[in-house]
Fold this protein.
Amino acid sequence: MKARGLAALTPKAALTPYEFERRELGAHDVALDIAYAGICHSDIHQVREEWGPAIFPMVPGHEIAGTVSAIGSAVTKFKVGDPIGVGVFIDSCRKCASCLAGLQQYCEEGMTGTITLWSVTVRQLHWVGIQISLL
């Protein structure tokens, strides 16, 4: 799946147009066309590598609003055309004590974030549960 965004190609670089490939939509994934994406202080710190080494190129922005453009075969809560918003994380194990208590941000298996972190896991690199393409 082709995607595009504005990326910092190296630390502290200005954002420039960038095209990249996303994996194909999985059974539990929701694809969306982004209408708006926020840049917060976390994104700025990451682009500047002020919190440690980061992964580049980096497309900052993790507070997202848009429209569902496709759904995986197992998705039941969304349909194409629905408005959708994405916060700072998109997935968790949903089974550990933290998740069951409604504290998914403290998932014992590791939540899947929408912000680039220097300590990313394979789940975070794939952004399980969401595919993004800009309008």
Observations:
- The first strand starts at residue 2 and ends at 7.
- The chain has one domain: 2-134.
- The CA atoms of residues 39 and 93 lie 27 Å apart.
- Confidence is low (pLDDT under 50) at residues 117-135.
